[in-house]
Amino acid sequence: MLYVLHGEDDFSLHQALEEIKRSIGDATALATNTTVLDGHQVTVSELGAVCAAMPFLGERRLVIINGLLERFEPKAKPSRRKKADGAARQDEYKLLGEYLLQVPESTVLVLVDGKIKGSNPLLRQLSPRAKVMSFPLLRDIRLRQWIEKRVAEKGGSISPQAVELLARYVGGNLWIMAGEIDKLVLFASGRRIEEDDVRRVVSYAQEASVFAMVDAILEFRAGAAEQLLQQLLQQGAAPAYLLVMLARQVRLIVRLKELGRQRRPQEEIQDKLEVASEFVMRKAREQATRYSLARLKEVYHRLLQADVWIKTGKYEAELALNILIAELCQPRKLAV
What's the pTM value of the predicted model, to 2 decimals? Predict the structure, then answer.
Protein backbone atom coordinates (compact mmCIF):
# COMPACT_ATOMS: atom_id res chain seq x y z
CA MET A 1 0.00 0.00 0.00
CA LEU A 2 1.29 3.46 -0.92
CA TYR A 3 0.29 6.59 1.02
CA VAL A 4 1.20 10.18 0.23
CA LEU A 5 0.78 12.63 3.12
CA HIS A 6 1.60 16.27 2.44
CA GLY A 7 0.73 19.74 3.66
CA GLU A 8 1.62 22.53 6.10
CA ASP A 9 -0.62 21.19 8.87
CA ASP A 10 1.93 18.74 10.23
CA PHE A 11 -0.16 18.17 13.39
CA SER A 12 -2.99 16.54 11.41
CA LEU A 13 -0.44 14.86 9.14
CA HIS A 14 1.27 13.34 12.18
CA GLN A 15 -2.08 12.06 13.46
CA ALA A 16 -2.80 10.47 10.08
CA LEU A 17 0.61 8.77 10.12
CA GLU A 18 -0.08 7.41 13.61
CA GLU A 19 -3.43 6.05 12.40
CA ILE A 20 -1.68 4.26 9.52
CA LYS A 21 0.73 2.71 12.02
CA ARG A 22 -2.15 1.51 14.20
CA SER A 23 -3.88 -0.03 11.19
CA ILE A 24 -0.80 -2.13 10.34
CA GLY A 25 -0.83 -4.12 13.57
CA ASP A 26 1.00 -4.64 16.83
CA ALA A 27 3.11 -1.60 17.78
CA THR A 28 5.93 -3.69 19.25
CA ALA A 29 6.34 -5.78 16.11
CA LEU A 30 6.06 -2.68 13.93
CA ALA A 31 8.88 -0.94 15.81
CA THR A 32 11.36 -3.55 14.52
CA ASN A 33 9.92 -3.36 11.01
CA THR A 34 9.95 0.41 10.46
CA THR A 35 12.53 2.22 8.36
CA VAL A 36 12.71 6.00 7.86
CA LEU A 37 14.53 7.32 4.77
CA ASP A 38 15.67 10.77 3.69
CA GLY A 39 13.80 11.51 0.47
CA HIS A 40 16.36 14.09 -0.63
CA GLN A 41 19.07 11.42 -0.84
CA VAL A 42 17.38 8.05 -1.33
CA THR A 43 18.13 6.06 -4.51
CA VAL A 44 16.12 3.41 -6.31
CA SER A 45 18.59 0.70 -5.30
CA GLU A 46 18.48 1.75 -1.62
CA LEU A 47 14.70 1.86 -1.72
CA GLY A 48 14.56 -1.54 -3.36
CA ALA A 49 16.80 -3.12 -0.73
CA VAL A 50 14.66 -1.77 2.12
CA CYS A 51 11.24 -2.51 0.64
CA ALA A 52 12.13 -6.01 -0.57
CA ALA A 53 13.29 -7.15 2.88
CA MET A 54 10.85 -9.53 4.55
CA PRO A 55 9.19 -8.38 7.81
CA PHE A 56 10.77 -9.70 11.01
CA LEU A 57 8.24 -11.48 13.25
CA GLY A 58 5.41 -9.54 11.66
CA GLU A 59 3.17 -9.36 8.59
CA ARG A 60 4.12 -5.94 7.27
CA ARG A 61 7.04 -3.56 6.99
CA LEU A 62 6.57 0.22 7.24
CA VAL A 63 8.83 2.46 5.16
CA ILE A 64 8.53 6.22 5.67
CA ILE A 65 10.25 8.57 3.22
CA ASN A 66 10.55 12.21 4.30
CA GLY A 67 10.85 14.95 1.66
CA LEU A 68 10.86 12.87 -1.52
CA LEU A 69 8.20 14.95 -3.29
CA GLU A 70 9.95 18.18 -2.30
CA ARG A 71 13.06 16.93 -4.07
CA PHE A 72 11.18 17.18 -7.39
CA GLU A 73 9.30 20.41 -6.82
CA PRO A 74 9.23 22.54 -10.01
CA LYS A 75 11.70 25.44 -9.93
CA ALA A 76 10.85 28.86 -11.38
CA LYS A 77 12.63 30.03 -14.56
CA PRO A 78 15.52 27.56 -14.72
CA SER A 79 18.84 28.55 -16.31
CA ARG A 80 20.44 26.49 -19.12
CA ARG A 81 22.50 24.51 -16.65
CA LYS A 82 19.46 23.97 -14.45
CA LYS A 83 17.50 22.81 -17.49
CA ALA A 84 20.09 20.08 -18.06
CA ASP A 85 19.92 19.15 -14.39
CA GLY A 86 16.13 19.17 -14.68
CA ALA A 87 16.23 16.61 -17.49
CA ALA A 88 18.33 14.30 -15.30
CA ARG A 89 15.95 14.83 -12.40
CA GLN A 90 13.03 13.96 -14.67
CA ASP A 91 14.55 10.56 -15.44
CA GLU A 92 15.25 10.13 -11.74
CA TYR A 93 11.69 10.81 -10.58
CA LYS A 94 10.29 8.49 -13.25
CA LEU A 95 12.50 5.62 -12.09
CA LEU A 96 11.59 6.26 -8.45
CA GLY A 97 7.91 6.60 -9.31
CA GLU A 98 7.87 3.34 -11.24
CA TYR A 99 9.42 1.48 -8.33
CA LEU A 100 7.15 3.09 -5.72
CA LEU A 101 4.12 1.82 -7.60
CA GLN A 102 5.29 -1.80 -7.47
CA VAL A 103 6.54 -2.30 -3.91
CA PRO A 104 5.85 -5.74 -2.43
CA GLU A 105 2.51 -6.39 -0.69
CA SER A 106 4.40 -6.88 2.57
CA THR A 107 5.52 -3.23 2.58
CA VAL A 108 3.44 -0.22 3.54
CA LEU A 109 5.13 2.83 2.02
CA VAL A 110 4.37 6.36 3.26
CA LEU A 111 5.71 9.54 1.64
CA VAL A 112 5.68 12.49 4.04
CA ASP A 113 6.13 16.05 2.76
CA GLY A 114 5.27 19.66 3.55
CA LYS A 115 3.49 22.01 1.15
CA ILE A 116 3.65 20.56 -2.37
CA LYS A 117 2.39 22.06 -5.64
CA GLY A 118 -0.21 20.23 -7.68
CA SER A 119 2.22 20.36 -10.62
CA ASN A 120 4.79 18.24 -8.76
CA PRO A 121 5.70 15.54 -11.35
CA LEU A 122 6.19 12.70 -8.87
CA LEU A 123 2.91 13.51 -7.12
CA ARG A 124 1.10 13.45 -10.48
CA GLN A 125 2.70 10.13 -11.35
CA LEU A 126 1.73 8.51 -8.04
CA SER A 127 -1.71 10.04 -7.45
CA PRO A 128 -3.80 7.63 -9.58
CA ARG A 129 -2.63 4.59 -7.59
CA ALA A 130 -1.72 5.99 -4.16
CA LYS A 131 -3.89 7.13 -1.27
CA VAL A 132 -3.12 10.85 -1.26
CA MET A 133 -3.99 12.89 1.82
CA SER A 134 -3.52 16.67 1.82
CA PHE A 135 -3.26 18.70 5.03
CA PRO A 136 -3.41 22.46 4.37
CA LEU A 137 -3.36 24.87 7.30
CA LEU A 138 -6.84 25.15 8.78
CA ARG A 139 -8.49 28.55 8.46
CA ASP A 140 -11.80 30.27 9.16
CA ILE A 141 -14.73 27.91 9.78
CA ARG A 142 -12.65 24.73 9.57
CA LEU A 143 -10.24 26.01 12.21
CA ARG A 144 -13.10 27.02 14.49
CA GLN A 145 -14.73 23.61 14.09
CA TRP A 146 -11.42 21.94 14.95
CA ILE A 147 -11.12 24.05 18.12
CA GLU A 148 -14.63 23.09 19.25
CA LYS A 149 -13.97 19.41 18.55
CA ARG A 150 -10.63 19.45 20.39
CA VAL A 151 -12.16 21.14 23.44
CA ALA A 152 -14.98 18.56 23.50
CA GLU A 153 -12.49 15.69 23.19
CA LYS A 154 -10.68 17.06 26.26
CA GLY A 155 -13.94 17.12 28.22
CA GLY A 156 -14.57 20.85 28.06
CA SER A 157 -16.89 23.37 26.42
CA ILE A 158 -16.18 26.78 24.91
CA SER A 159 -18.22 29.83 23.93
CA PRO A 160 -18.33 30.95 20.27
CA GLN A 161 -16.68 34.24 21.27
CA ALA A 162 -13.80 32.39 22.95
CA VAL A 163 -13.40 30.19 19.85
CA GLU A 164 -13.18 33.31 17.68
CA LEU A 165 -10.58 34.94 19.93
CA LEU A 166 -8.51 31.76 20.20
CA ALA A 167 -8.50 31.33 16.41
CA ARG A 168 -7.43 34.94 15.94
CA TYR A 169 -4.63 34.75 18.49
CA VAL A 170 -3.07 31.39 17.60
CA GLY A 171 -4.00 30.74 13.96
CA GLY A 172 -3.53 27.44 12.14
CA ASN A 173 -0.54 26.00 14.02
CA LEU A 174 -2.38 23.08 15.63
CA TRP A 175 0.59 21.97 17.74
CA ILE A 176 0.44 25.30 19.57
CA MET A 177 -3.36 25.38 19.49
CA ALA A 178 -3.63 21.92 21.06
CA GLY A 179 -1.34 22.97 23.92
CA GLU A 180 -3.28 26.17 24.54
CA ILE A 181 -6.60 24.27 24.55
CA ASP A 182 -5.21 21.79 27.07
CA LYS A 183 -4.25 24.70 29.36
CA LEU A 184 -7.66 26.36 28.95
CA VAL A 185 -9.61 23.18 29.77
CA LEU A 186 -7.56 22.71 32.94
CA PHE A 187 -7.94 26.38 33.88
CA ALA A 188 -11.73 26.38 33.35
CA SER A 189 -12.02 23.22 35.52
CA GLY A 190 -15.44 22.05 34.31
CA ARG A 191 -17.08 25.35 33.38
CA ARG A 192 -17.36 26.80 29.87
CA ILE A 193 -14.27 28.53 28.51
CA GLU A 194 -14.96 32.23 27.93
CA GLU A 195 -13.15 35.10 26.21
CA ASP A 196 -11.61 36.32 29.46
CA ASP A 197 -10.08 32.88 30.03
CA VAL A 198 -8.40 33.06 26.62
CA ARG A 199 -7.01 36.52 27.40
CA ARG A 200 -5.68 35.37 30.77
CA VAL A 201 -4.27 31.97 29.81
CA VAL A 202 -3.22 31.96 26.18
CA SER A 203 0.35 33.18 25.68
CA TYR A 204 -0.56 34.92 22.42
CA ALA A 205 -2.99 37.14 24.31
CA GLN A 206 -0.04 38.89 25.92
CA GLU A 207 1.58 39.25 22.50
CA ALA A 208 -1.61 40.95 21.28
CA SER A 209 -1.38 43.46 24.14
CA VAL A 210 2.32 44.03 23.43
CA PHE A 211 1.52 44.73 19.77
CA ALA A 212 -1.17 47.18 20.87
CA MET A 213 1.36 48.87 23.18
CA VAL A 214 3.85 49.12 20.31
CA ASP A 215 1.12 50.78 18.22
CA ALA A 216 0.38 53.27 21.00
CA ILE A 217 4.09 54.10 21.48
CA LEU A 218 4.76 54.54 17.77
CA GLU A 219 1.68 56.77 17.45
CA PHE A 220 2.65 58.88 20.52
CA ARG A 221 -0.48 57.83 22.45
CA ALA A 222 0.99 57.99 25.95
CA GLY A 223 -2.28 57.36 27.80
CA ALA A 224 -3.09 54.18 25.87
CA ALA A 225 0.48 52.86 26.17
CA GLU A 226 0.53 53.45 29.94
CA GLN A 227 -2.87 51.77 30.36
CA LEU A 228 -1.75 48.69 28.42
CA LEU A 229 1.46 48.54 30.44
CA GLN A 230 -0.46 48.58 33.72
CA GLN A 231 -2.88 45.90 32.48
CA LEU A 232 -0.01 43.57 31.59
CA LEU A 233 1.73 44.19 34.92
CA GLN A 234 -1.53 43.44 36.78
CA GLN A 235 -1.83 40.18 34.84
CA GLY A 236 1.51 39.13 36.28
CA ALA A 237 3.88 39.98 33.42
CA ALA A 238 7.35 40.85 34.71
CA PRO A 239 8.65 44.31 33.64
CA ALA A 240 11.91 42.83 32.31
CA TYR A 241 9.89 40.32 30.26
CA LEU A 242 7.76 43.13 28.80
CA LEU A 243 10.86 45.05 27.80
CA VAL A 244 12.20 41.97 26.00
CA MET A 245 8.83 41.46 24.28
CA LEU A 246 8.64 45.09 23.16
CA ALA A 247 12.17 44.91 21.74
CA ARG A 248 11.36 41.60 20.03
CA GLN A 249 8.22 42.99 18.38
CA VAL A 250 9.92 46.14 17.14
CA ARG A 251 12.88 44.12 15.83
CA LEU A 252 10.42 41.79 14.07
CA ILE A 253 8.70 44.73 12.37
CA VAL A 254 12.04 46.21 11.26
CA ARG A 255 13.21 42.90 9.80
CA LEU A 256 9.86 42.40 8.07
CA LYS A 257 10.06 45.88 6.58
CA GLU A 258 13.59 45.24 5.27
CA LEU A 259 12.66 41.85 3.77
CA GLY A 260 9.58 43.41 2.18
CA ARG A 261 11.78 46.01 0.50
CA GLN A 262 13.82 43.16 -0.96
CA ARG A 263 10.57 41.82 -2.46
CA ARG A 264 10.96 38.42 -0.82
CA PRO A 265 7.96 36.05 -1.08
CA GLN A 266 5.72 36.00 2.01
CA GLU A 267 6.44 32.34 2.74
CA GLU A 268 10.19 32.98 2.63
CA ILE A 269 9.81 36.00 4.92
CA GLN A 270 7.84 33.98 7.48
CA ASP A 271 10.45 31.20 7.38
CA LYS A 272 13.31 33.66 7.88
CA LEU A 273 11.54 35.34 10.79
CA GLU A 274 10.70 31.93 12.31
CA VAL A 275 7.17 33.07 13.22
CA ALA A 276 4.53 30.33 13.45
CA SER A 277 1.54 32.47 14.49
CA GLU A 278 -0.59 33.94 11.71
CA PHE A 279 -1.78 36.59 14.17
CA VAL A 280 1.77 37.76 14.89
CA MET A 281 2.65 37.88 11.18
CA ARG A 282 -0.53 39.78 10.31
CA LYS A 283 0.03 42.37 13.02
CA ALA A 284 3.71 42.77 12.11
CA ARG A 285 2.81 43.28 8.42
CA GLU A 286 0.25 45.94 9.35
CA GLN A 287 2.76 47.81 11.50
CA ALA A 288 5.54 47.50 8.91
CA THR A 289 3.37 49.35 6.39
CA ARG A 290 2.23 52.05 8.83
CA TYR A 291 5.48 53.20 10.43
CA SER A 292 8.71 54.62 9.06
CA LEU A 293 11.97 52.74 9.45
CA ALA A 294 13.52 55.75 11.17
CA ARG A 295 10.82 55.78 13.85
CA LEU A 296 11.06 52.01 14.39
CA LYS A 297 14.85 52.10 14.74
CA GLU A 298 14.69 55.03 17.14
CA VAL A 299 12.22 53.18 19.39
CA TYR A 300 14.33 50.00 19.24
CA HIS A 301 17.49 51.82 20.33
CA ARG A 302 15.64 53.49 23.20
CA LEU A 303 14.39 50.06 24.33
CA LEU A 304 17.99 48.86 24.43
CA GLN A 305 18.89 51.94 26.47
CA ALA A 306 16.16 51.06 29.00
CA ASP A 307 17.62 47.57 29.23
CA VAL A 308 20.99 49.12 30.16
CA TRP A 309 19.25 51.25 32.82
CA ILE A 310 17.82 48.14 34.43
CA LYS A 311 20.96 46.00 34.21
CA THR A 312 23.22 48.72 35.61
CA GLY A 313 20.80 49.43 38.46
CA LYS A 314 20.07 53.01 37.39
CA TYR A 315 16.31 52.37 37.61
CA GLU A 316 14.05 49.57 38.79
CA ALA A 317 12.52 47.68 35.85
CA GLU A 318 8.96 49.02 36.24
CA LEU A 319 10.15 52.61 36.67
CA ALA A 320 12.43 52.25 33.64
CA LEU A 321 9.48 51.11 31.53
CA ASN A 322 7.31 54.02 32.66
CA ILE A 323 10.07 56.56 31.95
CA LEU A 324 10.73 54.93 28.57
CA ILE A 325 7.08 55.09 27.48
CA ALA A 326 6.72 58.69 28.66
CA GLU A 327 9.80 59.74 26.67
CA LEU A 328 8.91 57.74 23.55
CA CYS A 329 5.44 59.27 23.44
CA GLN A 330 6.72 62.85 23.17
CA PRO A 331 6.65 63.80 19.45
CA ARG A 332 8.82 66.84 19.98
CA LYS A 333 11.73 64.63 21.07
CA LEU A 334 11.56 61.91 18.44
CA ALA A 335 11.34 62.38 14.68
CA VAL A 336 8.89 60.19 12.82
Answer: 0.64
